[in-house]
Write a structure and sequence with these properties.
This protein is mainly alpha-helical. The protein is 78% helix and 0% strand. It is elongated and about 60 Å long.
Length: 222
Amino acid sequence: MTTALLAYQSGLLLRSQRWLAPVVLYAAVLAIGLQGGQPVLDSLGYAAAGLLPAGAWLARICVSNEPPAARGCTAAATTPWRAHLASLLTALLATALLGALATLFVALLADGVSTDHRVRIAVLPAAGAGLLAAWTCALAGTAVGALTTWPVIRGTGAGVATLLLGTLLALVAPGSPARSAVTALITGSQRGEIPLPALPFLGAAVLAGACAAAACALASRR
């Protein structure tokens, strides 16, 4: 049933074409901020940070893709929490795929050097660290999206405003997994070392799981 729900939600996302807006915006952010020859770890950190708002936006899109009547039918066919979880997982997988593509793009475009261009950095291991950071931001973005849309927040205006605030806090708040992962890449570039942001990734996974569980619990009551 979970696979069928994911396939259903993925089909809804693709057919709606609502994914175009966050994807095009993210592509524009990369095009504006990245240039050939820039230090690879700095570029990967920039790409990972830009993925977080795209992930939050995609989560909001996936949760709201169905009209209330269709959502009720889906919930009746399985359970409300499973239907809601499938929409959040679809958003996470879409964001993770977008992050993987961005990491590949940066690895091909950037230069394998430190921030001061004095130390050579292996591009392939750097790309691995960048991918982990990107997936950390994807998890954080999905967590923000889960808490800023239905059933946690029903109003569109309040939901969008809270989403923007949550995205900002996820990027700048001390202790945030997304900030820690991005900072690890930038600090590693300054030192000429490749970091492994495994702890931020695990923290983001726990955070996303908790937020998804809370949202699914509320969906089951409504």
